């Protein structure tokens, strides 16, 4: 009997993390040096535990990235470069979403529309197909799905429960009802139920409230979320409302989720523009949790909360202040690939 495909949780064993190197041809051009330092720190942290696949725009970018990483004493035996075209580096949203059944994989290639047409995404929308053309994956088939969905918009517990936000999915599909969207998500992602959040947002976020900036599964019965305890902050009311929504959710067994509220960092500004600094945008890898750090007094407290939520995993802070200048953070620039797919 063939096992049904399922959507693995992020904490399950991984073969690699997929990223794309920032270049002068991307939106990072004005602050490329700062962003490269974040990427070096990220690759250095990941390669302590597992391989990294790095998309590069051309041979010159590969040579440069290789030299920068090697000079930082990164374990280059765990780094593989793939020459492929891309518009930008937000691989969480343009990369493949992996389903598995035993050692067979189905990599879902949803429509990537540049977050609802905000940015050009013609190359990013072809990224998964291009990676298949370069034989990156094994025991895998690509499934092209004519439905707009980004990886940052969905969270799974690996056992058939999906967590997402109504704001984002409704923005992408304004004519669809909640029931219709649930049916689509359940069908394509092999989920048994969908949990919706109607509250929560971050200023400076142009994804229309991606779930990976707000609330994340830490286990089948645990959720980590970005809280706000500053009553003077514009985020206080919506994030308090989101916290109440999370408290009302129930596991498949009908029990409340164990909740881990992350501390609220101080405002990070770019002139008059507030940037979306969220500790919920962490990345789980084999044996560790990589946490976005913003040079804030709450960084260490956030790391301590994540250590409580993920016992047995090392929590590593990665400096991500340069990333939020472009409205995303650590989880947004990465995509995990399940064990065996690479």
Automatic annotation (TrEMBL):
<dbReference type="Pfam" id="PF04371">
    <property type="entry name" value="PAD_porph"/>
</dbReference>
<protein>
    <submittedName>
        <fullName>Agmatine deiminase family protein</fullName>
    </submittedName>
</protein>
<dbReference type="InterPro" id="IPR007466">
    <property type="entry name" value="Peptidyl-Arg-deiminase_porph"/>
</dbReference>
<keyword id="KW-0378">Hydrolase</keyword>
